[in-house]
Amino acid sequence: MVKWMVEHPLGPEACASLKDQEMFNDLLYDAAKAGNVELVDYLFDLGCDDGYAHALLNAVKGGHVECMKRLLERCSSCMYLDRETIEKVVVEAAENGHLEILQFFRVQDAPLIHPCTSRETSPNIEPTNIWWSRAASAFDAAAGSGRLDVLKWLHANRYLGCSTNAMDHAAGNGHLTVVQWLHTNVKASCTKRAMDDAATNGHLNVVKWLHANTDVGCTQRAMDNAARYGRLKELQWLHANQSEGCTFRAFDSAISYGHLRVAYWLRSNLPYRPPPDNQPRFRSQNQFDVLLFLQGNCPDISTTEFAQETKYDFSGDSARPGDFLIEEWLDEMYPQAASEGE
C-alpha cells in the first residue's frame, strides 16, 4: 500500500508533504514495530532515516531480530546512536525477554556510529562496549518482568551487579521464583518497597517469603494500599505479622473504592481513623452500599454536612443514571441538609 501510494502519479507531491510533517518517520516506526523488513528497506531508500533510533527500539521491543539487524546494517546512512538510545536498546531486549537479541549484541565488534563522525566532533559517540555499560539496568529490567532465563544469561555472560530495583520490582510484580533466585545467586538486597508493592498487588506468597527470609520489613504504605485495592488477606496477614500498622488512608481508601469487607474489618480490628476532612471520596459503583455502611458504622461521618457534600458529588456533569435516587434518600435521611441546600 505504501509503495503504491508513493509510486502513484501524485506520489512525489504527497511524499514531500508527508516528509514535511514527519509522517514518514511514523511509517518507519510502525514498519519496525511490525518487523516488516521489506517496508523498512523501502522507506530507507526513500530517504526516511530521521527516525532510525526510535525504529530500532520498536524492532527490539517486539523481538524482531531480522528487522533489527537490517536497521543496524542501514546505520551507515544515519546519525550515530546517543547513549540514551543504546542503553534503551539493551534494556528493552532484557525487559521483554528477547535473549537472542542480547546474544547478538554480546558479540558485536564495531561501534555503531556515523562513519564521518569523530569523538572530537561528537563527544556522545561511544565504543562498542557502550552496549553493555548499562547492563545493570538491563538486569533490573529483566528481574522486574520475571525473565529468569535472561537473568541467568546476563549473570553468566555480562553481570555488572544490580540495584535494589531488581528485587523490589520482581517482588512487586509477584515473581517469587525470580526473587528467590536473586536472593540465592547474586545476594541481591531489597528495600521496604518490595513488601509494600507485593502487598499492594496481592502477592501474599511473596510477602510471606520476604518476611521469612529478609529483615527489611515494610512501611505503613503496605496496609494502606492493600486496603485501597481490597486485599483483605494481605491486610489481615500484615496486621498479624508486621508492626508497622496503617494510617487513616487505609479506611478512607477502602470506603472510597467500595471495599466494604475491608472497611468493616478495619473498623472492627483497628483504632478508628476517619479521614481528616470527614468526607470520603466516592469512586466505586456501589456508592449506595457505602452510604448504608457509613450510616450504620460511622455516625461521626454521617452528618448533615456530609450529606450536603455527598449530594454535591452526585450532581452536575458527573452524575450517573440513578444518582437522583441517592439524592432523594439523603434528603429523606438528612432533612436538614435538604432544607439548607434549597
UniProtKB/TrEMBL annotation:
Domain of life from the UniProt record: Eukaryota
Pfam families recorded: Ank_2, Ank_4
Concerning InterPro entries, the annotation shows: Ankyrin_rpt (IPR002110), Ankyrin_rpt-contain_sf (IPR036770), SecEffector_AnkRepeat (IPR052050)
Record's protein name: Uncharacterized protein
Question: Can you name the source organism?
Answer: Phytophthora fragariae
